[in-house]
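Lab notebook page, bench 4
Experiment: in silico fold of construct C2
Operator: M.H.
Input chain length: 120 residues
Purpose: comparison with the prior construct
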Amino acid sequence: MRSSPSVVPTDRLDRDIYIVLEDFGAHAGCAWRETDEQDTDLETVLQGLLSGQYVYPVRTVCFNASEGWSRDATSDIADALAQRVVDSDDDISVALQDFIAANATRRFDVQLALPLQGAA
């Protein structure tokens, strides 16, 4: 009997997948953000965080179901974000600054800009 080839690529899910836990405030609480499958790679998640797609990120998790592992990637993500901010000198939200400050494990040569309350 002839078998048909699979219509699902065998390596589609055999990769590292990143998801973000976001804080939606006191009434809604925290939830893992719903994300399209193709938007769960490291680069897309970093771009989403830098562009403000995630307003109050709390934690990031990386997993590879095909290999059978998962891990907390929060500090890796915070370090990567901090390096990109230093390299690009772009402004980032206060919430993202707080995420980096709370989770980065490396020290960077450039101080992240902090907003001054009441400054005109």
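Observations: The chain has a mean pLDDT of 85. Residues 17-103 form one domain.
Next step: discuss at group meeting.
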